## 1
Amino acid sequence: MAHPRGLPQSKEALLKSYTTRLKDDVKSMLENFEEIVKLAKGESDTQLSKMTQSEQDTYEMHVRAANIVRAGESLMKLVSDIKQYLILNDFPSVNEAITQNSKLFRTKQAECDQKLMSLRDDMAADLYDLEEEYYTSIYK
């Protein structure tokens, strides 16, 4: 089933999933980074002691840093998936190569046909001459 852009439904869904994954990963990286910056500035209004808050902030920074790494790895996997998709679905260039080869082979075929017809005509003329010579020969 084709969509307006000419993509089958499965490809359309795949491309949408790539877009969603990209947006989600970038959003995750940005949000986690912003939170780390806030934690580093020490902007939290809390009843906890400075030492306890500092430990908690450090722990949260580690978790958020791990989230950023996870999102980065997810983006690298996405790039790999998109490259694979492009390799497997690069039909325009494959079609272009096939078309060029077809043209080349049609040209070669036309040349061969021309040579064969020329050879046929030469042989027919030679055979006609031989036949003429045979029938008019005194050595029959």
Note: Residues 91-136 form the longest helix (46 residues).
## 2
Amino acid sequence: MARVFVYGTLKKGQPNYKHMINTTKGIAKYQGRGRTVEKYPLVIAGKYNIPYMLNIPGTGHHIAGEIYTVDDQMLRFLDEFEGCPDMYQRTTMRIEVVEWEGKRGTAEVRPASSGVMECFVYNTSTYQPEWVQLPYHDNYDSSGTHGLSYVLRENRD
């Protein structure tokens, strides 16, 4: 099992969460909430209002999200879903655990006593230069006050 930190449309209550609970795509177990140890810019960009965490450490905010353990099948699905490695790149980041719901498990799954763990995160180094000028968010919500609702793939032209 691998740990994955999601910060965008795959979180609970967001447009693509359905994929996280679709067992035909693999297994994803919600473990808790966290935030990036380092600051990153989280922007909403493109004509489909897609959230992107730009791989510019030290700029932006500590990004809030959810921590999951996923099996190999789900990890392969997420790589494909996120357009890895072209649109997003799967990298390892340090995530501070804010709230842990994970059941008693192996030390591999539990957070360290420091409350920080390494997780895979889908961020991007392949962004448009003008995205750096967009507003930075710390917690993505497709229905947020930003007014930039995510456009589902099935509704795109």
Note: The chain has a mean pLDDT of 93.
## 3
Amino acid sequence: MGKNFEGRQFTGMIKFTPPLYKQRYEFVKDLVRKYKPKKVADLGCADCTLLWMLKFCSCIEVLAGLDICAAVMKEKMHRLTPLPADYLEPSERSLTVTLHQGSVAHKDPCMLGFDLVTCIELIEHLQDSELEKFPEVVFGFMAPSMVVISTPNSEFNTLLPGVTVFRHPDHKFEWDRAQFQSWAQDTAQRYDYSVEFTGVGNPPTGMEDVGFCTQIGVFVKKYPQTREPVLCEKPTEAAYKTVSILLFI
């Protein structure tokens, strides 16, 4: 945190417009519009909101969601089902949406071959043992062309009323910008990715030193066409349980 911020106390009310979660999802949608991936996986998809938003992106042919909690997905997955208009006026493209229950610390062949993998507000929920395995699963095994990871910026917490330690009781940690960038750069170097940092949720005027409320790392595979595959043990059995498969034809 910059020295200009030290000793000052913010007494106003933080209100994000649009809401912070929508800003995170719109960030992903903007990337999809720009790079037009055909296969997208959302790890930690929870209530499937991001998947629901992405199903309207015409470039996407395959969507997959993964979450440790099947109940949350089942409660909201009705939003992903085809609408009557999808049958009356079929699209020129086909779309398959699949939901899986499982841990991001485990490898499953069903997650191979994706162009874009998103991890929106996920890593801070992982135990140390899961976080240790996460890079190898996502960057080593899945090895998509692009990975988007968002996580809270702990430097912003001093501006959030009622936040004394973490923003959510299930968070195992919250990193400042230096910690996140160090982890991200080490991961990118290890698996031959580049990484750029940005965020959403602008700080109040005069408090810019704290950075964005949500920090984001965008990882791009350096040699998607020519790099030799990462040598890792391929699992022989599925590690995830399929919760739902939806077809839009």
Note: Residues 1-8 have pLDDT under 50 and may be disordered.
## 4
Amino acid sequence: MTHVALAFEVPGGWLEEKDATIMTVMQTLMGGGGSFSSGGPGKGMHSRLYLRVLNKYHSVHSFSAFSNVYDNSGLFGIYLTTPSDFVAKAVDVAISELIAIATPGEVTEVELKRAKNSTISSVLMNLESRVIVAEDIGRQLLTYGCRKPIDYFLQCMDDMTVDDIMAFARKLLSSKPTMASCGDVDKVPAYDYVCKRLR
């Protein structure tokens, strides 16, 4: 098996609240998962990567969007696992999916609405846990010097448009990617090839 992560820096992190919120929704929009997911609520069965990749390429074992946000930086990317003889195609598909969300007309209003609703639901369910609320209070105090009400972040998500997603994706793709791989890596495409495909 070959594992590949293709990621981009998100400058600003939580200090750039709008971008951090867009990135969170974009991760839900792209989604993905494992090829052996049993489905059901919250499994991402309607996400772009599930419908456009996992349902189409049966050699792919997992294919997921990921994001990590820190105070003044963050990462957004795709992580995939596949047999080594399919890894070149899988990396090419990952690049195509990243380019697609930066392309006008590729992301629909229905997809974005579903991703926003799913993200809002996840945030609200997480905030039912006292442990997560305590962690959220601590992080916000350290980052902003105060705790912003949940309605503030929900409004940011509600105001988000397809154009916001596209502009954010274009900004990501204009920077140099970071790529890491492990396992049977002989057939992983060269970094220079990946950079040229993203131009």
Note: The longest helix spans residues 109-126.
